[in-house]
Amino acid sequence: MSGLVRCLAVGFIWLAHTTVYVDAGAVQYRVTIDAPHTHYVQVEAKIVPKQAGDIELFMPVWTPGSYLVREYARQVDSFVAVGADNKPLAWSKTTKNRWKISGVAAEGFTVRYRVYCNELSVRTNFVDADFGMLAPAATFMTCSQLLADEHTVQLQLPAVWRQSLTAMEHPVGAAAHTYRASNFDELVDSPIFVGNPQVHPFRVGDAEHFLVNQGGDPYWNGEAAAADVAKIVAEHQQMWGAVPYKRYYFFNIIAESGGGLEHNNSTVLITSRWSFRNPKNYKKWLGLVSHEFFHVWNVRRLRPRALAHYDYENEVYFDELWVSEGITSYYDELALVRAGVISSKDYLAALSKQIETLQTGPGRLKQSLVESSRDAWIKFYRPDENSSNTSVNYYIKGAIVGFLLDAHIRQRTNNQKSLDDVMRGLYQRYAEKDGFTNHEITLVASEVAGSNMQSWFDQTVNSTTELDYQPALDWLGMVFKASPAEEKVDEGKEADKPKAGEAAAQPEKTPEAWTGVTLDAKLFVTRIVEDSPAYSAGLNVGDELIGVDGFRLTEPLEERLKQYNVSDTVKIHLARRGKLIEVPMILAAKPPAAWKLEPAKEPTPAQRENFASWLK
Q1: Is the pLDDT of residue 501 over 90?
Q2: What pLDDT is recorded for position 8?
Q3: CATH of the domain at 370
Q4: How distant, in Å, are the alpha carbons of 376, 472, 476, 602 from that of 469?
Q5: What long-range pairs does 543-547 form, CB within 8 A, spacing at least 24?
Q6: Domain assignment of residue 603, yes or no
Q7: Measuring CA to CA, which residue among 475, 417, 471 is closest to residue 604?
């Protein structure tokens, strides 16, 4: 054994209920799933310290890529510790996620515990009679001295389950379902699938890839989906110019939910069995695939400096999530059109939706991208009905800033450089090193653009100033399409000019009345836009709308409002905590849908060339 002061968690063998210690020189766990319908797994490991004494174990409280304290230890029960002689050792909880084992002898000890696994998400554990998806951060304990040591996991599966799949290496000559990680970071970064999935392998470049579908048949065509994923993979590989992995898994859990989480050499995706045959939803799934795969480079290897070394027990604050997630959100859809799996019309529609979401959210004027990044731990993962009024989404605004930055660099360099060059430059300098900050991305962007861009970043990233879209639109030959009402007004100016003595013609479409309130299917208020009619009238989230002007609501509120004009005062009948209330409300004009991008009617040859260069 090494002379370093450390502890080694190694494998074990059960013989007549006596633990036989095996010094394999590695951190090893055995995970047993013998009754998956109970949602429990059993974990057992041996700890062999270099020096006798008290040893403290910990379990992570969060997992990289999901910036919220998840309290994984809450799912642990039946914890026991025994010595080399299999006699119980005293232990105590020292914090919410730490266990101190007292009086450990040099020969070591064993810990055993159960983990309850019944939360189907990309960052938690799920096991049932059909399959299991294990998040290592939510499964394994270790001690701080072990973080740099090799970790090995052996799985004991039900007889009906044929496969286990993970990005970890299967050691040559090792038993089935045994995997090795070079350190605890790699272990946490390697989700484990167990069950009987449909595996669709494909090769792109010099790397093997696997689309692992759980569920979905006969509604999912796995081979066709894998072919589309291969096109996305090829596009990202070409853009980055480097392939830092040899094998990659797309774990696609088809289970009527949603989400995605990135890892170095794999990703966990959750979707619906009805997504594949629905073109709109299938394109969203392809966007999710593209987003998580882009993270192979951006955030997994090219990390913000604060994430260069993970602290699994505490929140880690940093200001660059708009790069890690927002820039990734810009490229996820852009890669689809470049790869040929969606049309340019599809892409402009997706970008338009992001712009509309940003520009109709009052929070854009209250929180900058830097502030949004830092507040992810307390705001983004804990949204409420007032979130859009007070905060900005770093995914959405970050993607739009990525679009504007890309267009700006292209314009400054006459299409010789782009945001692609910025991201490659950051990767070459900072990937798998000490990471970057906003200062570094500003420097690299300035070098690529050929001019100092500090003021540009101050305006778009560090402040709440409204974004200026016009330079990008002018360069690419695009416009925001006018709303129908605006089109009618414009037509009236040209074709229906009144003659002398005649009244001016009115547009055919009058402004649509609006309250600024969002209702669920049962007519309960779920969100209110700040400074909207509902906000001014004093409606509350949780109010149940019953009627308008003495008549019960039997249809969507928007349909009823078609009976009214802007500036009309209506009586809203509602129930608030069981009490019937009548609230007067003055209707306002619905904000125009003025954020739909489309090509200009007569773009110049240069604009056509710029547009093609952008999407090629």
Answers
A1: no
A2: 35
A3: 1.10.390.10
A4: 26, 6, 11, 19
A5: 543/574, 543/575, 543/576, 543/581, 544/574, 544/575, 544/576, 545/519, 545/572, 545/573, 545/574, 546/573, 546/574, 546/575, 546/580, 547/572, 547/573
A6: no
A7: 475
Q: Do 331 and 246 belong to one domain?
A: no
Please state, in angstroms and rounded to a whole number, the distance separating the CA atoms of residues 568 and 257. Answer: 42
Answer yes or no: do 309 and 426 share one domain.
yes
In the DSSP assignment, the letter for residue 174 is P
Instruction: Give a yes or no: residue 507 inside a domain.
Output: no
Percent of the chain with pLDDT over 90: 84
Name which of 325, 210, 240, 336 is nearest 279 in CA terms.
336
d(CA 371, CA 376): 9
- Using an 8 Å Cβ cutoff, are 60 and 188 in contact? yes
How crowded is the C-beta side of 501, counted as CA atoms within 13 Å? 0
Specify whether 121 is located in the same domain as 38: yes
Whether residue 237 sits in one domain with residue 334: no
What angle, 0 to 180 degrees and rounded to 10, lies between the N-to-C axes of helices 438-449 and 419-430?
130
Decide if 125 is inside a domain. Answer: yes
Say what percent of the chain tops pLDDT 70. 91
Do both 321 and 393 map to the same domain? yes
Q: Identify the domain containing residue 383 by its residue range.
A: 305-476
- How many folded domains does the chain comprise? 4
Q: What is the largest CA-CA distance in the chain?
A: 107
158 and 232 housed in the same domain: no
SS3 of residue 419 by DSSP: helix
Q: How many whole angstroms separate alpha carbon 268 and alpha carbon 249?
A: 8
pTM: 0.90
User: 140 and 45 in one domain?
Assistant: yes
Domain-embedded: residue 117: yes
Per-residue pLDDT, 64: 97
> Structure tokens of 214?
């759980």
The pLDDT of residue 372 is 97
pLDDT(512) > 50: yes
